Amino acid sequence: MKVLVTGAAGFIGFYVSKVLLEKGHEVVGLDNVNDYYTADLKYDRLNELGISKKEAEIFKRKSVSSKYSSFAFIRMDLEDRTHLPSLFENESFDAVCNLAAQAGVRYSLENPEAYVDSNMVGFLNILECCRNHKIKHLVYASSSSVYGLNEKIPFSAEDNVDHPISLYAATKKSNELMAHTYSHLFQLPTTGLRFFTVYGPWGRPDMAMFLFTDAIVNNRPIKVFNYGNMERDFTYIDDITEGVVRVIEKPINDRLNEKEYYKLYNIGNNNSVKLSDFINEIENNLEKKAEKQMLPIQPGDVERTWADVNGLIRDYGYSPDTPIKEGVKNFIDWYRSYYKI
Questions:
Q1: Which of 14, 137, 291, 334 could form a disulfide linkage to 201, CB 3.0–4.6 angstroms apart?
Q2: Residue numbers annotated as active site
Q3: Which residues form the NAD-dependent epimerase/dehydratase domain (predicted)?
């Protein structure tokens, strides 16, 4: 297939692009390489895919990979209503995997406009392009944050999610509603994937795994919110990638009634891990104790997440299963290598 992967310089988009290429698909990666976190990490991910920093810095010009002959990259904003439709017109994609978004729960309290621009306006543009160019399947990233104040554990994709507690979560819930509308009105096949706390090598610097490791290594205290009374369904990046690629590769009418064009799935480890246990694993791998700064829960945070993945098992025979011990070790090994420690 020929697949458009948006957010290709991002954590998950980088991995999805790489696996699709290794499986023989043609991939066009799109990213605006914004400065929400250091762009150097994004450029280094692209370099792993054969796109140099110099090539990645050019807007709206397609660069072909030196490593993968079937990979090309274009730097562009999803909000670009002129060049995005032209890209769809020129490339004739079979499928679209939309992983581009303004990420981060806490940052949405500081810069709400960025979330509306990227996550809502940008997503609408993707939907319009998919509709107008007869895309066979749109796969898009949602988030476990949509469950908000939901107290039923584990979280099921069938649960009511009308009570988000951050703007980020609200934009992800709006993506699901927008996708449902386009699936219903235009028979556009869409699949939303609710990711649960993704971690691993090449991960985002604003996520707990990276923040804790970096602070401990550099002799800074780590901020432990809700006084440590947090639990997360930590999901290793390889497991997330496997799930995403399986969904992309399986045409929607192979698994659905031909009149049913809209689906949602959780992708998580189906396990809730205490934050203290997660920190202990990092300390054990670094052979160094963390100085902990115990703080109250932050606005927009939830106390516990846990994914019910029965839908993914039923339709794809797949369930993430990488244990925390293995995933944390792999991240620490990568961190030491990347920063030459």
A1: 334
A2: 168
A3: 3-268
